[in-house]
Every structure is written in C-alpha cells, then in structure tokens.
Design a protein that fits this description.
The complex is a heterodimer of chains A (269) and B (195). Chain A is mainly alpha-helical. Chain A is built from 9 helices and 4 strands; from the N terminus they run H-E-E-E-E-H-H-H-H-H-H-H-H. The chains are: A mainly alpha (269), B mainly alpha (195).
Chain lengths: 269, 195
C-alpha cells in the first residue's frame, strides 16, 4: 500500500475521504475557489455517470411503451420506485406534495447508494493516490445536505407561502417569554438537521474505511505476517458490514430528507 | 458487533500513531482538520454533479417510470371497477330475467286457468243451447204431431162422414140434399165427439 512509499496512514485515509489536492488532473481556479479536477471530482463524475446510465438503461422500456411490463433491471427500478413512493414519500410528505419531491428523494437514494458502493470497490486503484469514497468526504455530504436544507425551506414556502413558513417558527398560541427560547431552538434545529445528515453519512462511510485501514495497517506497523492473515479475515467481515452500512446510510439519508421536507409541509401540528 | 469492537480497539491503537503523524503534517493543518473542514471545490462539484444527475434522471428515468406505474395503477383500478360494474349489471340482468321467467310462468298459469274456465263456460253454454234447441225441436215436433194428428182426425172424420152418407144414401136409396145431410151428420158426429 501507499504506506510503504513514505506516506503516513493518515494520508491514506485523507486521500480516500477528502479532496486529494496532491493529485490534480486539471487545475481550475474560479473566483478564488479551487475547482481543480481531482480524484474525488472524477469519482463524483463516475458515480453520476454510473447512476444515470444504469437508471436510464433500466427504465428504457417505459420510455418506449407506457404499458410495458417490468423485466430484468426495470423490475428493480419499479420495486425501488414503489418503495420510495409508497413507504417513504407518501408517509412523510404526503401523496399530493410528494409527487413534486419524489424525483429528488429517489435520486438521493440511487446517487448516495451508488457512491457508497463504488467507494467500496478498489477497482479505481488505477487513479493515482488510490480509490475514493465520495460520500466519506464531508464536502460532498455537506453539499447533499444543503440541498435538503434548501428543499425544506422551498417545500415549506410552497405550502405556506414564504412569510407563512417563517411565521410558523413562532407559534401564536405560545406565551411571549417562551418564544425567546423557542425561536433560537427552531433556528438551531433548522441547521442541525442537515448537519446531522452530513455527519451521519460522512462519518459512517469514513468509519468503516478507517477501521479497515487500521486493521491493514497493523501488520505493516508490527511487521508480522500472521497478523496480516487475521487482518484479512477481519476486513472481509467488515467489508460485508460496509455493504449493509452503505445501504442503510443511503436509506437513512433519503428517509430523513423526506421526513424533514414533510415536516416543513405539515408543520401545523 | 464483535467485529466492530475489535475494529474500535484497532482504531484506537493505530489512531494514536496517526495523530502524532497528523501533527507533523503542518502544511494544510492536521489530517483531522483536513477531514472535517469541507473543501469548497468538492462542495461545488457535488452540487453540479448532483443537479445534472437529478435533471437527467427526473426527465429520462423517473418521469417515464412514474407515469408507467401510475398508468398501470389506474388501469388496474379501472378494470376492477369495470369488473365490479359488469358483475352488478350481470346480477341485475339475471334478477330481471328471473323476474321475467316468474312473470311468464304466472301469465302462462293465468292463461291456462282462463282457457280452462273459458272452455268450461263454452262447454256449459253449448250444452245449454243444445238442450234449448233440442227442447224447441221436441216442442215443434210435438206440435207438428199434434197438428198432423188433428188433421188426420179431421180427414178421418170427413171420410167417415162421406162414407156414412154414401152408406146411408145407399141404404135409403134416396139422394138427399147432400149439404143438409152433411151438416146433419156432422152435427151428430160432433155430438159424438164431445160425448
């Protein structure tokens, strides 16, 4: 591993879960922001391309014929869409408003799941600096959560009007002194919700990877071959756990985003 | 869970070595800071990538998929309600048919009953009229017989008168005024007849 080339284990993890500025493919600086094409940007594109091509290919039957019956991959997309629509969106956002938010929620799920699972595959080791899990990068999860953050405000404003949405931060049936505590809490809650989404996804995707590097780092640090065998067995188990975590975190992010958007729409109670 | 526990122990062991290394990397801060503080470049690239994915999928994948699912659902709902409607209609038709059959049976019974009563009546009428006719014929026959009888008696009487006159004239050989004689004899005979 890269650890042998003088890089520390911290660097290995960093390259995996943060924007690796040591390997820049195309430097771009725009308005003071470093928009250089790095390993993570390429991984993001790969995830995006993979998500798009799989979904577009999987749903091609329905574009040709609206009465098509599912077959092969389209079965999977139908099950996914039915699950997200009936079990997530309908229960949290509601049927009427849910129709507008359904594409976003579904895209969250497939995009995050693809990013999580592609991050598990060391297939991209040909990229200098090693593979990357974009969802383990907090910049990526912050971006995704900020989409949720603005979606919550947009959803609330669409339902109650822009001013009406903000007015609900201060319920009228509450005594004035309570509002002094309530309004800051509401405003904090507004930011804590996406922050929780950010940290949950990012930390979960990173934790497993750190664990795996730690376990693989041990035989290198100890110079013991036998420890390496134990590490391999342990990491195989953790890898399966990671697959489950990938699924669960994609689901949790999707579900919570839907719940938060639903809360903004049905904030009267 | 055990795996997790072991992993945590390893992380704790190895992370101490990471931490010491992290401090050494002073150019961009420690790796923890690098990890926690989001990079604005990746942040923007994520937004761009995600919105492109959302836009393409919304248009090319989710829209046709949702439309197909909706259409299938509405088709199923429609065919279910159509089946329900058809069932109800069939039930109504069958009920109507049953009623029609019942009505037809009743009518048939009525017709048969009516036919019977009409037949009975007709029979009775025919019998009655036959009897009347027979009675009339009988009466006429009797009257005719009576008339014939009377006619015959009259003829017999006149023959007897003629015979008596001829016999008497032969006996007395005197040709009396026949009209007077006739009256005489007739009167006598009438007297006999009355007696």
């Amino acid at each position: 591993m890269a650890g042998n080339n003088g890089e520390s284990f911290g660097d290995i993890i960093l390259h995996h879960v943060t924007n690796d500025l040591d390997h820049i493919y195309m430097p771009i600086h725009l308005l003071g922001v470093n928009l250089s094409i790095t390993k993570h940007v390429i991984m993001l594109w790969i995830v995006g391309l993979f998500t798009i091509s799989l979904a577009v290919w999987g749903t091609r039957r329905y574009r040709k014929n609206i009465n098509a019956t599912p077959k092969g991959l389209s079965h999977l997309y139908e099950i996914l869409m039915n699950f997200i629509r009936d079990d997530i969106v309908k229960n949290t956002i509601g049927e009427k408003e849910g129709r507008f938010w359904l594409p976003l929620i579904t895209t969250y799920f497939v995009f995050i799941l693809t990013a999580n699972l592609l991050g598990l595959i060391p297939l991209f080791e040909f990229i200098p600096g090693g593979s990357a899990t974009v969802t383990g990068n907090f910049a990526v999860t912050v971006a995704l959560a900020s989409i949720t953050f603005f979606s919550i405000i947009i959803a609330g404003s669409m339902k109650h009007g822009f001013i009406g949405y903000w007015k609900q931060m201060a319920p009228s049936n509450v005594p004035k002194p309570v509002l002094l505590i309530l309004i800051p809490i509401e405003i904090m809650g507004m930011f804590i919700r996406p922050l929780a989404l950010t940290l949950r996804l990012g930390a979960n995707m990173t934790a497993g990877h750190i664990g795996m590097v730690a376990i693989f780092g041990l035989p290198i640090l100890l110079h013991q071959f036998s420890v390496g065998i134990i590490s391999t067995i342990l990491n195989t188990g953790i890898f399966f756990l990671e697959i489950i975590v990938s699924l669960v975190q994609a689901y949790v992010f999707t579900l919570l985003s839907a719940v938060f958007i639903g809360m903004a729409i049905h904030s009267e109670h | 869970m055990n795996l997790f526990r072991i992993a945590v122990v390893f992380i704790l062991t190895v992370s101490t070595s990471f931490a010491s290394e992290a401090v050494e990397h002073s150019e961009g801060g420690g790796w923890l800071e690098k990890w926690i503080i989001p990079d604005p470049g990746i942040f923007l690239w994520t937004l761009v990538t995600f919105f492109i994915v959302l836009f393409v999928l919304r248009l090319k994948a989710w829209k046709p998929l949702i439309e197909a699912l909706d259409k299938r659902e509405s088709d199923i709902r429609d065919s279910l309600s159509a089946a329900e409607k058809a069932k109800k209609e069939a039930e109504a038709v069958s009920r109507e048919y049953d009623e029609l059959v019942k009505k037809a049976q009743m009518e048939a019974q009525q017709i048969v009953a009516e036919g019977k009563s009409v037949g009975e009546k007709l029979k009775a009428d025919i019998e009655k009229s036959a009897k009347v006719t027979a009675d009339e014929i009988l009466v006429t026959a009797r009257e005719q017989i009576e008339a014939e009888k009377e006619k015959a008696i009259k003829e017999i009487k006149s023959v007897i008168v003629d015979l008596s006159i001829s016999a008497a004239s032969k006996v007395i050989e005197k040709n009396l005024d026949s009209d007077d004689n006739k009256r005489l004899i007739k009167n006598t005979l009438d007297k006999f007849g009355k007696a």
